[in-house]
Amino acid sequence: MVDYRKYIQREPDAVKQKKLTCVAWVLSVLIFLLVAMMGRYKIDVGLDLSFLPPVHAMLNSLVTICLLVAFLSIKNKNVTLHKRAIGGAVVFSVLFLLCYVAYHGTQQEVKFGDVDGNGIVDEFELAKAGVARTVYLLVLASHILLAAISLPFILITLSLGYTNHFARHKKMARWVFPIWLYVAATGPVCYWLLRPYY
To answer: Would you list the DSSP string of the chain?
Structure first.
């Protein structure tokens, strides 16, 4: 077990923290703009990337596992394992984002209830989907909204830990962590609900 005290006694780096906070906001805005543009524009790369949605679900599942390991390890004051698990969550999140952009920037949107795959959910399909469509849309909306809102705060929380601002890191992580966990865990749920229509 790592000595917890050796970490919490490190000096905070205020200059580095200020720079990383700026980077977090700029990166978040750029990612938000990129994702917003993917809804309007599709790029033909000459590749069929329709295999990626289950990869998205797998990567989000791995993020969820890493976050749970990170939570349990910090509760046991195992800072080294906590940092490794958070590092894993970040790596899997970045891989997810790259796959997500590749897929949604090149493929047409799959709609819940669109049985014939024509991109339109007609009245018959809507009636057949029933309440399951409403459940899916609620889960998806909360997943997307919380992902967009939480991104800069996830990055800032990470940077607070990295720059030894442990009290602020802990305070922020108390509300950022459950949101990140919810976003990661609902990603596979959205995939499994939409899976019959791929």
So the answer is: ---HHHHHTSPP-HHHHHHHHHHHHHHHHHHHHHHHHHHH-----S---TTHHHHHHHHHHHHHHHHHHHHHHHHTT-HHHHHHHHHHHHHHHHHHHHHHHHHHTTSPPP-TT-TT-SS---HHHHHHHTHHHHHHHHHHHHHHHHHHHHHHHHHHHHHHHHTT-HHHHHHHHHHHHHHHHHHHHHHHHHHHHHGGG-
- Give 39-56 pLDDT, tens digit per residue: 778 888 888 898 999 999
Using one digit for the tens of pLDDT, what is the confidence trace for 125-151?
999 999 999 999 999 999 999 999 999
pLDDT at residue 178 tops 90: yes
Global confidence as pTM: 0.87
Domain 16-35+46-197 falls under CATH 1.20.272: no
For the chain, give every domain's residue range: 16-35+46-197
